[in-house]
Specification:
Aminopeptidase, alpha/beta, 9 helices, binds zinc ion, 15 strands, five-stranded mixed sheet, six-stranded mixed sheet, 2 domains, Immunoglobulin-like
Length: about 375
Amino acid sequence: MNIRSIVLLCLFLLFPLASHALEITGLRIESKEQGEHVSLRLTSKVNYKIFKVDNPPPRIVVDVPLAHWKGTPALPKDYRGRLIKKMRFGFHDTKTNRLVFELYADAKLDNIRLIGSSGAGAYWLEFDLMTHSSAHSRSLSSESTLTKAPEKPMIVIDAGHGGQDPGTSGYNGSMEKQLTLRYARNLQDALLKTGRYRVTLTRSDDRYLLLRERVKRARQAKGELFISLHADSAPTRTARGLSVYTISAKASDKEAEALAAKENKADVIGGMDLSDASKDVANILIDLAERETRAKSTQFADLAVKNLGREVKLLSNTHRFAGFAVLKAPDIPSVLIEVGFLTSPREEHLLQSQTYQGKVVRGIVKAIDSYFGKHKK
Ligand SMILES: [Zn+2]
């Protein structure tokens, strides 16, 4: 037996040992624009299979050779993502361990790869999950998305303000832009949990967005309902209560008009006032679409007032009409909800509490269920 054969023999003997010694030493999930990036840290290079199972619930399956999971196999404790509902890790057969990610809703699986080196002492098995709206806008020839079963209604949630535009400041310093994002995320979670809706956020982090851009995102996502979340302000500390707005050519009262002027100002902050750009393309079709959309918006606003009224204090004369630019998608029923007054110290405190947030979210989910006729499901 020459040296070469001995080396080969040793390699053969070592190989099974090496594969048994495979360890999964970490799972990391990062939020990305319109999706999540998942990476699994491994101690050696492996053969793997990653695929999607479409029949409900949608799942991502990762098959790897038998491996020891260091610690407890679980989603990262700080996981705040929107896509993965739960995960499990176990045996698929005598040679394979299977990791399954159960998703809230269908997502696109993309960018599967194994990177790393023995020199680095670690490998990363990675993939991206993308929500359908992003998969949609990224691939122009996504025929497969057209052949799917009737899709769940797409709800677009718009967290007001963001980035350089903080919105209203609370009596005790809370910022509207942070509050609206928190409510938007909670509402998104609650809607996804019902399994009845798809959800897109116009922003999922602290970024500045033109009002026009928010509407554009809602239309790209093919939203069927647009909900813009805001927190109110008033010159007096005593003004309190939630209110719901829909669009009108003419604001219904002076307060509503002043509020619309304040919220719309955000469109000018970026340097250009684009709020009137759509007037150039106004025609009879848009007008007709707007009429129908306005009727639907009003219908949803009434349901929102009814359902939220059971949960929290409402501002008197709660359903109001104002010329908010963010409500101007001609084809998507849209409402703007001022969840309460940050300028009231008492309400600011309430707005920050889990209980109040839960009530607002519950009220909106019930209104959405009624609107789409799903309350008896
Ligand atoms: Zn606002």
